[in-house]
Amino acid sequence: MKKIICLLLVAMLLFGAAVAESTHEVQTIYKGQLVVVYTSGDYGYIVRDNDTALILNYNGEEETVIVPAELDGHAVTEIDGNAFRSSDMVSVFLPDSIISPDANIFGRCYSLAEVNVSLKNPDLESVDGVLFSKKDRCLVCYPAAKESEVYIVPQGTQALSEGAFSACEYLTEVMLPDGLKIIGNEAFAGCYCLKALNLPDGLTTIGDRAFADCEMKEIVIPDSVTEIGINPFQWWFYDQTVCVSDEHPLFAVVDGALYDKTENKLISYFGSDQSFSVPQGTEIIGERAFDEFERLTDITFPDSLKKICASAFSMCSGLRSISFAEGLVEIDRSAFYACDSLTALSLPKGLERIGDGAFRGCGHLQTVEIAEGLKEIGNNAFTVCYDLEYISLPSTLKTIGSGAFSYCRNLREIVLPESLTEIKDRAFEECTGLTSVAMPAALTEMGVNPFLKCEGLTEIRVSADNPVLASIDGVLFVKTERKLLCYPAGRQQSTYVIPQGIREIAQDAFYRAVAIGEIVLPDSLEKIGKEAFLYCSMLTRVSGGSGLSEIGNSAFYGCENLNQVTLPVTLTKIGEQAFSRCPNLILAVYRDSYALEYCRENALKYSYTDSQDWLKD
Hints:
Elements: H1 2-14, E1 25-30, E2 33-40, E3 43-47, E4 53-58, E5 64-66, E6 70-71, E7 74-79, E8 91-94, E9 114-117, E10 124-127, E11 130-133, E12 138-141, E13 150-152, E14 159-160, E15 173-175, E16 182-183, E17 196-198, E18 205-206, E19 218-221, E20 227-228, E21 241-244, E22 251-254, E23 257-260, E24 265-269, E25 275-277, E26 284-285, E27 298-300, E28 307-308, E29 321-323, E30 330-331, E31 344-347, E32 353-354, E33 367-370, E34 376-377, E35 390-392, E36 399-400, E37 422-423, E38 436-439, E39 445-446, E40 459-462, E41 469-472, E42 475-478, E43 483-486, E44 495-497, E45 504-505, E46 518-521, E47 527-528, E48 541-544, E49 550-551, E50 564-566, E51 573-574, E52 586-589, H2 594-601, E53 606-608
Parallel strand pairs: 4-7, 5-8, 8-9, 12-14, 13-15, 14-16, 15-17, 16-18, 18-20, 19-21, 24-26, 25-27, 26-28, 27-29, 28-30, 30-32, 31-33, 32-34, 33-35, 34-36, 36-37, 37-39, 38-40, 43-45, 44-46, 45-47, 46-48, 47-49, 48-50, 49-51, 50-52, 52-53
Antiparallel strand pairs: 1-2, 2-3, 3-4, 6-7, 10-11, 11-12, 22-23, 23-24, 41-42, 42-43
């Protein structure tokens, strides 16, 4: 009590005036919007439309932190959930201006032992150093370093906020009140020492990962619970038990797995079996249901299964065998991320979509057979599957996402089906084993160089019936845009003459084409895209291009042997670092040209096109 009174006296002295004026401001993206962040003392803040301040970050090192009521004349009403993240503070005092936060704003403050609040605050209060929202009847934050083994949540509390007890290292038992309705997301996550927790009758909601990484031996879900979020029992071991009564109208536990009976969804697996057969009738494997369950080696799916949700088997490092059945429609993002023991996959007929990163990081996966029906392979779906040697793509496939097969260095052949209409950015980046690729007639949408850093690729072929794409001497072009899209990096040709009529060289088009020594640009060329010749280490000379108007950012970055480029008078734009790390380069420019001004502003070496060395400025 004495400590609280002292803090209140200090607060009364400090909060009458604003903290020191802001010293600088920067722009950043906050929740999808561009905002200005002001700095005042140890605080970074943004100003809301109602002229109040939201604290975005705290950079101080004080053990006792007194949050100001004002910053530069703006009333402090909000604190971002990451503002004090990982701070070493031991105690904190909140002014009466702060309104109720939606979640624990002191997450990962592992040294925090008490939270105190101004007695004048209409929304918040502190009870024995624990933060509550009065209007919501919610426990917002139990300090992680509070030295108590047993805590009795006060009667009348109806909700535990997101992360309310997360990472509380001393607690062994928490007693919940009868009127509790909601346990928020990650409310008890990381409470390693928590041994006893009785969920009261009347509880309705258990949030995402609510009891993740807790070591209690048993938990009983009351019949009153109507909503359970993403795997509340993530990282539980096989000797921990979740109990549900046989009379529960919505949920059941069968063979070490928690099910939602209304959605036919497996929510969480905490069983002891290394091999598991999902029961017939199950339609959904829930998000993170088996996440990091390293003990699992074999899984068999029923033909009733329709969807495997995000991260369902993420980092199941022991998983060696998956038996799919027809009926599966979707494998969502990161579903089998980093399942490093997988060596072969046979995906079933009727599967329509493989989500973003679904098999990313399955480093020992060697073969993938995909049956008919698949329409989409998502972004990074098979990225860094280093050992992948073979994949069969069905005739129904429409889209290959960005980076879908990037860094599959052992992939030596890919047969693109006639149905394919789109390949997105860098889909086959650093597939160094590829030597040639054939593009079908239906393929009309192409992203940024799909074959970036494919150092073994020497040829790209295109169907003569393709209305958009074309191949000239193995180089890929977009006919409709008169654009050079991709120069195969493995070509050993030392000089390349770009065909007359081409108007643009696309982004990354010649990236790491290390054999090329000279480029001849057509006079029709108008634009060189950003990073177009990045790290073309053997390139020495670029000629032609009398109609060029734009050179993109880093276009010739790292061309360490480049020594001869003439910049025409038609140039009106040269991007940042366009010629950086070209130590041997002296640019030839015209007098009174934009290129001349660019060279002067960027301290680049230059000479005039109409003079000898003695006439240089």
